[in-house]
């Protein structure tokens, strides 16, 4: 049985029913479905990327409830697995028809949704070596994609051509995107979640690319900023400022600090750079500093990473070894068409943090 599921069972009351529902296939339009992505908690406990499953835990009985495989499924090509395959992947021995699950639940006292959900999320915060290896695999493929697109970087190609190359590299390893890739050139680099990808690269552009591969459900999250035809002095000054803030972040992230405390330190470090770039005037008062800081650096420096790209965990939690977070400072100067972000993924260790690669 999946060790995460075994740990969860050991902390549940035996006289109460726990019901954990997997994701279902979602219609895109007509009779066409979106690509299926399993609920992260369900995937964490079972390893199963199959729609329409339910897991129940009651006393000594752990049961996986599934939709039957019909003749239509066989003819049209279903992503349903056989009982044997479900057992082999999940380690759950007992598998029953989902049409009987409501009858099974009837009369049993159920444990609260938030109770088991909160416990699973506390487990997901600390990654096992096996989970870290999965994240490393996604990072490795993402790095390969960045190397490939760097070699094709030139004026007059379109953003969507770069997006297509990222997808090609990911697919060549049978991986998917952990989130929609961001390929943002020129003024688009100042739009944090830009995904239109319609602009043609121009001489003098910066291009910000935020892309991460997902391996067996685990996300990577990386960003690089390239100069299409070489950095101007001003662009390089902004880029170097972001790199310096990133270095401070690497030296600040460690066990014993919360992300909330850490972000306060990082905001001070970023403001120092914004002063040096003359984006915050030297005579600015406190309110002006806050306003301009948020204007040029509108997001946080770090977030948890795992089965979700913005993974579970309170920002007030004290960081502990085994947690995985991003570091991604950025500066965005819209009226100069300069957007720079640099991002990598880090494992919290006993003494600090380690960049995963």
Account of the 3D structure:
- A hairpin with a 2-residue loop joins strand 10 (213-215) and strand 11 (218-219).
- The protein has 357 residues and is α+β, with helices and mostly antiparallel strands.
- It starts with a helix and ends with a strand.
- The chain has two domains: 3-124, 3-Layer(aba) Sandwich (Creatine Amidinohydrolase, Chain A, domain 1); 126-355, Alpha-Beta Complex (Creatine Amidinohydrolase), CATH 3.90.230.
- The chain is 37% helix and 19% strand.
- The strands form six sheets. Strands 1-4-5-6 form a four-stranded mixed beta sheet, covered by helices on one side.
- The chain is globular.
- The chain contains eleven helices and 17 strands.
Strand order of the largest sheet: 1-4-5-6
Strand content: 15-25%
Shape: globular
What pattern of helices and strands is seen along the backbone? Answer: HEEEHEEHHEHHHHEEEEEEHHHEEEEE
CATH architecture annotation name of the largest domain: Alpha-Beta Complex
Residues in helices, as a percent range: 25-40%
Which oligomeric form is depicted? single chain
Please state the structural category: alpha+beta
Quick rundown:
The protein is of the alpha+beta class. Helices cover 37% and strands 19% of the residues. It has 2 domains: 3-124, Creatinase/prolidase N-terminal domain (Creatine Amidinohydrolase, Chain A, domain 1), CATH 3.40.350.10; 126-355, Creatinase/methionine aminopeptidase superfamily (Creatine Amidinohydrolase, Alpha-Beta Complex).
């Amino acid at each position: 049985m999946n060790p995460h599921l075994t740990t969860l069972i050991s902390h549940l009351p035996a006289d109460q029913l726990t019901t954990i529902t997997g994701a279902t296939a979602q219609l895109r339009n007509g009779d066409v479905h979106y690509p299926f992505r399993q609920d992260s908690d369900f995937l964490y406990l079972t390893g199963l990327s199959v729609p329409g499953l339910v897991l129940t835990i009651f006393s000594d009985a752990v049961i996986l409830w599934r939709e039957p495989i019909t003749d239509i499924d066989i003819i049209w090509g279903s992503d349903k697995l056989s009982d044997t395959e479900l057992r082999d992947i999940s380690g759950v021995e007992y598998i029953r028809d989902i049409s009987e699950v409501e009858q099974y639940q009837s009369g049993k006292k159920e444990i609260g949704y938030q109770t088991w959900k909160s416990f699973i999320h506390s487990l997901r915060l600390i990654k096992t070596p096996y989970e870290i290896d999965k994240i490393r695999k996604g990072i490795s493929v993402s790095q390969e994609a960045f190397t490939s697109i760097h070699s094709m970087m030139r004026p007059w190609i379109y953003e969507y051509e770069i997006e297509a190359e990222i997808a090609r590299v990911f697919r060549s390893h049978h991986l998917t995107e952990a989130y929609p890739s961001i390929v943002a050139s020129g003024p688009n680099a100042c739009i944090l979640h830009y995904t239109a990808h319609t602009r043609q690269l121009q001489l003098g552009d910066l291009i910000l690319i935020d892309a991460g591969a997902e391996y067996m459900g685990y996300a990577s999250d990386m960003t690089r900023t390239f100069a299409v035809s070489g950095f101007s002095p001003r662009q390089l000054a902004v880029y170097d400022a972001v790199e310096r803030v990133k270095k401070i972040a690497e030296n600040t992230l460690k066990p014993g600090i919360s992300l909330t405390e850490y972000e306060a330190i990082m905001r001070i470090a970023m403001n120092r750079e914004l002063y040096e770039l003359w984006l915050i005037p030297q005579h600015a008062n406190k309110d002006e500093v806050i306003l301009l800081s948020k204007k040029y650096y509108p997001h946080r420096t770090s977030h948890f990473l795992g089965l979700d790209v913005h993974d579970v965990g309170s920002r007030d939690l004290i960081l502990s070894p085994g947690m995985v977070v991003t570091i991604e400072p950025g500066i965005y100067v819209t009226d100069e068409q300069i957007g720079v972000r640099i991002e990598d993924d880090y494992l919290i260790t006993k003494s600090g943090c380690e960049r995963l690669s």
